[in-house]
Write a structure and sequence with these properties.
The chain has 2 domains: 3-56; 75-219, Beta Polymerase, domain 2 (2-Layer Sandwich). It starts with a helix and ends with a helix. The longest helix has 37 residues, at 58-94. It has 7 helices and 5 strands, in the order αααβαβαβββαα. A 5-stranded mixed sheet has the order 1-2-5-4-3. It is α+β, with helices and mostly antiparallel strands.
Length: 220
C-alpha cells in the first residue's frame, strides 16, 4: 500500500470514529448534528481544527446513530419510537386541514427522548394555522425562517396532552408551514439507506403513510 492510500485509509477511519462519537452524543445528550460533530472532534482529537477534512457528513452520522440505537436502545427504543410516531399521527389527524407530513428523526427512526417532532404543513395561509391553534387554546411561538428554497413560517408548540400517545413524555413539535405547491418538490430528507423502509426513505410521510408505518411495526 502506498503512502497516499494509507493516509486516505487513516482519514476514513478517523471520519468513522468521529461519526460514531457524534452519534453517541446525539443519542445520550440530545446534541444537534453540528454541535455533536464539533464535540466529537474535541473528544477524539482535542482540537476542532485538527479534524479539518475529516468531519463526517450528516448522512454518515445518521447511519452511525441508527446503529447505536439498534445496539444500545433495543426494545426500549423501539417502544419509544412507536409512541412518538403514534403521537405524530394524532397531531397530524388534528392538523389534517393543513395537509401535514411527517419528517425528521421520528420518521427515519433516529428519534430519542431528546427529539422534537417535525411536521411540514402544505397550505398557503400560515395565519389560518395560527388561528386554528389559537381558537383551540394551544400556545405556540412563531419564527420566520429563510432557507435556499425560500422563506417560511415555523411554529413551535407543546403537543396537547390529549394527543400524546400512551404514557409518552410531553413532546415538543415544530410545524414548518410551506406553500401548497411545495409538496411537489422531492424532500431534502430523502435517504437511500437500505436499513430504512420505503416510507422512511422517502423523507416525508403523509397521514396514510404514517398509518401504514405504524401498522407495519405492529405486524412485526
Amino acid at each position: 500500500m502506498d503512502r497516499s492510500s494509507a493516509q486516505a485509509g487513516t482519514r476514513d477511519n478517523l471520519t468513522l470514529e468521529l461519526a460514531a462519537t457524534a452519534a453517541r452524543l446525539i443519542a445520550e445528550d440530545g446534541c444537534d448534528y453540528a454541535t455533536a460533530k464539533r464535540k466529537a472532534a474535541q473528544l477524539v482529537l482535542g482540537d476542532i481544527a485538527a479534524a479539518r477534512g475529516c468531519l463526517p457528513e450528516n448522512e454518515l452520522v445518521e447511519t452511525e446513530l441508527r446503529r447505536y440505537l439498534r445496539t444500545f436502545g433495543g426494545p426500549r427504543h423501539a417502544a419509544l419510537l412507536a409512541e412518538m410516531r403514534a403521537t405524530a399521527l394524532a397531531l397530524m389527524e388534528y392538523l389534517a386541514p393543513f395537509n401535514p407530513y411527517l419528517v425528521g428523526a421520528v420518521l427515519n427512526g433516529t428519534a430519542t427522548e431528546h427529539s422534537t417532532l417535525h411536521l411540514q404543513l402544505f397550505t398557503d395561509s400560515a395565519k389560518d394555522v395560527e388561528i386554528f391553534l389559537l381558537d383551540d387554546g394551544v400556545r405556540f411561538t412563531v419564527d420566520e425562517l429563510n432557507e435556499p428554497a425560500g422563506a417560511f413560517e415555523s411554529i413551535r408548540l407543546r403537543v396537547p396532552r390529549r394527543l400524546q400517545a400512551g404514557g409518552a413524555a410531553p413532546l415538543d413539535a415544530v410545524l414548518s408551514v410551506l406553500s401548497t405547491d411545495a409538496v411537489r418538490v422531492v424532500s431534502r430528507f430523502r435517504s437511500s439507506d437500505p436499513a430504512l423502509s420505503p416510507i422512511e426513505q422517502a423523507g416525508r410521510a403523509s397521514l396514510s403513510a404514517v398509518r401504514a408505518l405504524l401498522a407495519e411495526a405492529g405486524d412485526g
